[in-house]
């Protein structure tokens, strides 16, 4: 059973998941605003929030957290193994890695600059933010098993875990990422039978995580209603204005990356005019928009990249297949904006050092996110907790996530195709690319089941 692009398990339900999420949003926010207007001080409202809506929201968040460590570990190990195949694709692999890291950094930087300049999360009276924060922070620390925020030289040292199991248990995401990267590199270097079977076990873990995300996301409509009720019952209608500013900021940042950065890269490095690119890439971009899933779009991406954009098959296969889960410019940008928006919203001050760490986490977080609808949510929830920002804020975002997911997936898939054009152009021409054997062109072990 495969989660379809809407996250619905097998199509039994009449309404698609994103519509149910929207209904959850409207019901939760509507009821919360009414409660805020007419019963703000009532004892029953406090009990209802404490014993009904909060636990439902918490349950959903816990389920997401539950997946973070296995998902990020398996995705990163597989990502490195795929990139690092030394056999015939070492050079393309190296270029792809460089591309992913550079262009994803640009995307996150655009997001961070915009969110700092536009400050979409500011506007709540500071005492309200602080009250929300102290209410929620105990719980968030408890969920993640650790409290406080990170600072100073320790920040760098903490990247290397003393004990990877303890780091995983403590929800120390960056340390787990470091460990996974080292593990992946070693697994690439030792190409023995036992390491190969280890990699296929990791592949199994990854596939299971994808399946679980598909199931958990089915609960999102209830979680959205509950989390939104809790927050609007306290804050009233103002919170929705704040949310509109968040959506505007994300769309603006995605637009800059898609319509300015991509064309510049295409012209300078790919030798292709942006119009020709967008015309050729259109079928894949539309599929990405309608499915919100890079993985589900992959077959179209491959076809379009080879046929319409003229990229050699061996390059298109490698870059697009890997890119569907590892190269997510839109997702990285979205993660950065979301974390900073919620920090502003709850009044958590983040210094320069912490923002740089967020940048790094978003780059690897986007590599570790699954290419399915809402695939980045577990990673975002975890980053929030790392910085002492209440993960309940995810409830706010979820209600409008479908639209943003559609748009960021277009940027994710667009990034894979732009990368293929650029890397394809830099590769020597081989007389007949179709002659390259499948073994050579498909080192990628990760199937795309979504
Ligand atoms: N839906 C995105 C993709 O498949 C991942 C995410 O940002 O949630 O590319």
Write a short abstract of this structure.
This protein is an all-alpha fold and 450 residues long. The protein has helices at 17-38, 43-83, 90-118, 126-144, 154-157, 164-169, 173-189, 193-217, 220-235, 238-270, 274-291, 294-307, 313-326, 329-346, 352-368, 377-386, 393-398, 401-426, 438-441.
Q: What integer value in Å does the Rg equal?
A: 22 Å
Give me the count of strands: 0
Cα(first) to Cα(last) distance is 10 Å
For the record, the CATH architecture stands as Orthogonal Bundle
Tell me what portion of residues adopts beta-strand conformation: under 5%
So what's the CATH class? Mainly Alpha
Ligand inventory reads: aspartic acid
- Shape estimate: globular
> Within the CATH hierarchy, at the fold level, what is the topology?
Proton glutamate symport protein
Number of helices: 19
As residue ranges, the low-confidence spans are 1-9, 139-152, 432-450
Overall SS class:
mainly alpha
Helix content estimate:
over 70%
Query: What is the domain total for the residues?
Result: 1
Key traits:
450 residues, mainly alpha, Proton glutamate symport protein, 19 helices, 75% helix, globular, disordered C terminus, binds aspartic acid
């Amino acid at each position: 059973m495969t989660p379809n692009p809407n996250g619905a398990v097998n199509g039994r339900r009449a309404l698609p998941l994103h519509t149910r999420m929207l209904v959850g949003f409207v019901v939760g926010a509507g009821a919360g605003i009414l409660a805020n207007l007419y019963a703000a001080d009532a004892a029953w409202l406090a009990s209802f929030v404490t014993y009904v809506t909060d636990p439902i929201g918490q349950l959903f968040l816990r389920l997401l957290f539950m997946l973070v460590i296995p998902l990020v570990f398996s995705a990163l190990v597989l990502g490195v193994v795929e990139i690092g195949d030394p056999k015939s694709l070492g050079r393309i692999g190296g270029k792809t890695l460089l591309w992913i890291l550079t262009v994803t950094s640009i995307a996150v930087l655009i997001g961070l600059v915009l969110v700092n300049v536009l400050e979409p999360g500011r506007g709540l009276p500071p005492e309200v933010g602080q009250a929300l924060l102290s209410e929620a922070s105990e719980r968030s620390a408890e969920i993640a098993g650790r409290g406080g925020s990170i600072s100073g030289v320790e920040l760098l040292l903490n990247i290397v875990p003393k004990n990877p199991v303890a780091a995983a248990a403590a929800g120390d995401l960056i340390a787990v990422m470091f460990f996974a990267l080292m593990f992946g590199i070693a697994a690439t270097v030792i190409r023995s039978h036992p390491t190969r079977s280890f990699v296929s076990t990791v592949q199994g873990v990854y596939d299971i995580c994808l399946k679980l995300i598909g199931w958990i996301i089915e609960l999102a409509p209830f979680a959205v209603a509950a989390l939104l009720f809790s927050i609007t019952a306290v804050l009233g209608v103002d919170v929705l204005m704040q949310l509109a500013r968040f959506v505007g900021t994300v769309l603006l940042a995605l637009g800059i990356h898609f319509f300015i950065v991509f064309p510049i890269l295409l012209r300078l490095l790919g030798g292709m005019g942006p119009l020709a690119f967008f015309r050729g890439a259109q079928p894949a971009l539309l599929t990405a928009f309608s499915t919100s899933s890079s993985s589900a779009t992959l077959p179209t991406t491959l076809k379009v990249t080879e046929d319409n954009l003229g990229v050699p098959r061996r390059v298109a296969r490698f870059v697009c297949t890997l890119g569907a889960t590892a190269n997510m410019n839109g997702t990285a940008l979205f993660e950065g904006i979301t974390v900073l928006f919620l920090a502003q919203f709850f009044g958590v001050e983040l210094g320069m050092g912490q923002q740089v760490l967020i940048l790094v986490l978003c780059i690897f977080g986007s590599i570790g996110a699954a290419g399915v609808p809402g695939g980045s949510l577990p990673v975002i929830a975890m980053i929030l907790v790392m910085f002492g920002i209440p993960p309940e804020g995810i409830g706010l975002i979820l209600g409008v996530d479908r639209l943003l997911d559609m748009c960021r997936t277009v940027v994710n898939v667009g990034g894979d195709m732009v990368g293929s054009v650029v890397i394809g152009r830099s590769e020597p021409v081989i007389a007949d690319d179709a002659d390259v054997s499948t073994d050579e062109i498909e080192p990628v072990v990760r199937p795309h089941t979504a």
